Amino acid sequence: MKLDPRHLEILAAIVEAGGLTEGAALLGKSQPSVSRSVSLLEDRVGEPLFLPTRRPLQPTELGLALAQEGQRILSAGRHASRLVDEHRQGLAGAVRVAGTPIFMDGVISNVIAEFQAEYPNIRIDQSYGYPTELLSQLSAETLDLAILPMRPADVSDEYEFRQILPGRNVIACRVGHPLARKKEVKLEDITEYSWIAPPANSPLFRDLRNTLDGIGMRDFKISFTGGSLSAVVNVLTGSDSLTVLPFSVVFMMQRQKTLTALPIKIGDPDRHLGCVTLNARSTSASSNRVLDFIKQKFETLDRLICSASG
Amino acid sequence: MKLDPRHLEILAAIVEAGGLTEGAALLGKSQPSVSRSVSLLEDRVGEPLFLPTRRPLQPTELGLALAQEGQRILSAGRHASRLVDEHRQGLAGAVRVAGTPIFMDGVISNVIAEFQAEYPNIRIDQSYGYPTELLSQLSAETLDLAILPMRPADVSDEYEFRQILPGRNVIACRVGHPLARKKEVKLEDITEYSWIAPPANSPLFRDLRNTLDGIGMRDFKISFTGGSLSAVVNVLTGSDSLTVLPFSVVFMMQRQKTLTALPIKIGDPDRHLGCVTLNARSTSASSNRVLDFIKQKFETLDRLICSASG
DNA sequence: CGCTCAATATAACTTTGGGTTATGAAGCTT
DNA sequence: AAGCTTCATAACCCAAAGTTATATTGAGCG
After folding, report:
1. CB distance from B142 to chain A under 8 Å?
2. Which nucleotide lies nearest residue B39, CA to C1'?
3. Percent of chain B with pLDDT over 90
4. C13 C1' – A39 CA distance, angstroms?
5. Distance (Å, rounded) from C-alpha A65 to C-alpha A49?
6. CATH number of A93-146+278-309: 3.30.70.1520, 3.40.50.2300, 3.40.190.10, 3.90.1640.10?
7. Of A1, A70, A79, the CB nearest to B81
8. Same fold, A5-88 and A93-146+278-309
9. Which residue has the higher pLDDT, B216 or B32?
10. Chain mean pLDDT for chain B
11. Could you read off the pLDDT of B161-170 as tens digits, one per residue?
């Protein structure tokens, strides 16, 4: 005996409202409609659901019990509707975000923390990766949003790129580092220090190598490699090593007075940090929320950086 | 955005079964049917519920969330179906039973106790009353089953009467009562004792009065009145009073060795105890369960009484 | 007791959509 | 590349939900 859940909903509304007419109004239907639905339900059930000839309509035992189930169905339906609405407005859902490890840990994670406070029902699934793999993940639709350093000209039509910060890498060291005290630092000065190297396939590593190549320095001493940002920072602050980091990461850490940047820019000046999404697909509302939020936060961050270090 | 609960059920089945085809089988529908239902739901929701072009069909975030609501709806529906089945088989529901107070307390309540053990989901709403009022309650359908002493010939066509015991009232006293020791008790012997009188409008009281009228005894000393069975028994066992009780009640209490019956029958030999129901209405399955149970129990009780006291 | 009013039931009809079978298209598998 | 499985589409039928209009029936009241 399979019952139509809509019938149970109608029954629940009638019992709750206390009458056919009121129940119909509650459901936004006409009175004859619900009347006949009840008749159909009673036919299927084979037993009366309302006491006959009682004007303040009173349900039978069974009618009351079924109405309770109807209430459960109604509430599940309402909950489902709410989920849909939230999804469509981008107030709920899940967004898969990925980016280069150092930048994600150093900058994006702070932004995401703020985002979570504002949109608690959007789940962020974060992962790490480098441009080529992340772009293919976007194409395969296993990723919604990548945050990468790119040359805008290199971005194919398949993707949409929105710049959030100029790509500006710097050489970072601890605050009390000997070089940090100098007024002017020449490239030659840095040759004597050992390096914390970013992963070999990372853009940062390429930038570092290119820069050192530029001054004819083929070999450089590597004292530490393979760590995440927090490990790198710990090693950096506990030694005189140098490393290359996005300036924005160093900027964010200046508050803790542990890191500083040498006044030497390295890397490709045409490459900028930005959000990459798939162009074809209409991105989900929640992804757009994340995207907008990041763009907005980085506008203010960009201004901060510019005013602080012109 | 009101969603069709049936769509959510279908979604839940698909997600649970892991595919359209399996989901359709689970629901006992054809695959194209559920396929189109999903399409309709996706149209309404405005967002995809399944990841496209993935063969082991995988729901989206929203799809999964809605499927959970669908599961709630499914379980509510299954529960409702079970309620209906139980009702139809008379395994659940409520039955309104009434009868004369002394007989209900002394005999029927024991039977109801056994009934409850066998049918825990049937609720018994018991009340007390005398024939005229209970018959009119049956007519008004505010009562399902009355247990009353009646003359079968007096029962109108409106009702159906099923005899469960011969109506046999006796004079009851405590076990150690002076009269109880005598081999033969004449009516004259009882005149000196005081009486516990049943309520004035009860059949028992009428039987008592008629009997005493028959031996020319218009006045009799009443020492206690208005109590329920347990009060009457307490007074009876603590004094030499007499009272009139249905023999079945005394029989049930003989086990406790507190009451006994004088070998004098009083009352109307044409009146019998039986179950009265409304004839017109098809009685509910659960009422029939109660009725059948009572009839069956009283068949064995009747045999017991006959064999014990010929 | 009958009148009136309000609530429910019925009627007649339209439209939505769920059910079917048959068939086409698209992924995995081998 | 062939074949099998699975999902999507098409074309159709019919159950039933929705509508408006109207009849019926209780409940309350003078």
Report:
1. no
2. D8
3. 61
4. 19
5. 10
6. 3.40.190.10
7. A1
8. no
9. B32
10. 89
11. 999 999 889 9
